[in-house]
Amino acid sequence: MARIMNPTVRFAPSPTGTLHIGNIRTAVLNALLARKDGGTFMLRLDDTDRERSTEEFAEAIRTDLRWLGLDWEREERQSDRLGRYAEVAETLKASGHLYACYETEAELDLKRKRLRARGLPPIYDRTGLRLSDEDRAKLEAEGRRPHWRFRLPNSGPESGLSPLPTVVSWNDMIRGDQTVDLGSLSDPVLIREDGSPLYTFTSVVDDIDFSVTHIVRGEDHVTNSGVQIAIFEALGAEPPAFGHHGLLISADGTALSKRTGSLSIGSFRDAGLEPMAVLSYAALIGTSDAIEPHGAIEDLAALFDLGKVSTTPARFDAAELRNLNAKLLHKTTFDAVADRLAAFGVGGSAEFWEAVRGNVAVLEDARDWWQVATSDIDPVIENKDLTDTAATLLPSEPWDGDTWKTLTAAVSSATGLKGRALFHPLRLALTGRDAGPELKALLPFIGRTRAEARLKGLIG
């Protein structure tokens, strides 16, 4: 994909729930596009749903973005712009692009059923356009309030109000050439009967007013993009460039949802996952790049190319994300985690971190190994003769990285045991675990007193 200079992009969640990995993937793709090409990343809260939008969810969205390092240069809220939407709606009404309709939802549903029964597509019949001023006045006298539909540019003098095949096309940044037939669609409702605007409308107004140049979102918006291009043109504005990525689906193949709490960004944070692991996963899943951990968002931006993004759904794998998190920690330096280790009560400086980092899946696992090394544990005695012998052969302190080799050589010479028969019983006694960090690195932190007690089967 060619370089895009100074793009303005937006992430536009509705604060009606918490963000999940699918939402964040869209945010990441937009943020990386802006970061790579010197652009602006905007957070726009689409909060016109007054019943379900809450400030608690809005703040949760900000928290998730900040945790991931997805800083935004501008924030806007649609609830602050209702006057602007009303102003633009009046413009569309005056130009004949927005017209009043009075059917109830039950009446519309009945119309759709009748059309389907006749084998016809359930397209709105534009009854609202046939109403006279007298008709509208009578309906409003009955207590009805209009909702307002946008008249799609899909008819002509020869068809009257009947829609004709009308193709809207664009070169999608991800999917290539795309077309939407406006003749197969109903005129969309842009204003509800209570006066509140819908997303299809408000999003276009915002994109115009905030000079959004590129829109990257899920493939479920492809048809919506065709409709919105028509609205941009009705308002005399040039549509942004569009890119529609394949959706992220759950392990069982179903769509992700805000109700999928186990896949929320907050749940990843609570589980101890690293922000850069989540960010790396969200940026690379469903692309031609290998899913590998990256330590900085700049590294991901350098790799970023919408041409690498697949148009097919990508399957989220929680185990793959956890493995990615472990890989990230395995190559993380002590300086990068020193303060957090201290907060967990982990000592031992860089030497201890380097001893255990290859055996942690989340950072808090280092605390478990610190406790194994420095606190009392119940040893597991698999071969008492072996461990009793080892207890008598412990070298004098100070201990270092050669102590384990010295000890095992002495025990092997005394018992004739080698390989797993030698090493496994010693590991069980010294750590209480079947596997873990190399004992040559861990043993100096255990120390002679605890090692002797554990080898003798005592708590130590």
Write a brief caption for the model.
With 460 residues, the protein is mainly α. It has helices spanning 21-36, 55-68, 82-94, 105-117, 133-141, 199-209, 222-234, 265-270, 275-284, 297-303, 318-330, 334-343, 349-356, 365-374, 384-392, 403-415, 419-431, 439-455; strands at 8-11, 40-45, 74-77, 98-101, 147-150, 167-172, 176-181, 189-191, 214-218, 241-245, 248-249, 314-315.
Report on this structure.
The protein has 4 domains: 1-76 and 169-174 and 201-331, HUPs (Rossmann fold, 3-Layer(aba) Sandwich), CATH 3.40.50.620; 83-168, Glutamyl-tRNA Synthetase, domain 3 (Alpha-Beta Complex), CATH 3.90.800.10; 334-374; 384-455, Arc Repressor Mutant, subunit A (Orthogonal Bundle). The longest helix is centred in the last third of the chain and has 17 residues, at 439-455. A 3-stranded parallel β-sheet has the order 1-2-3. Strands 4-5-8 form a 3-stranded antiparallel β-sheet. Strands 6-7 form a two-stranded antiparallel ribbon. Helix content is 45%, strand content 11%. The protein is mostly helical and 460 residues long. The mean pLDDT is 94.
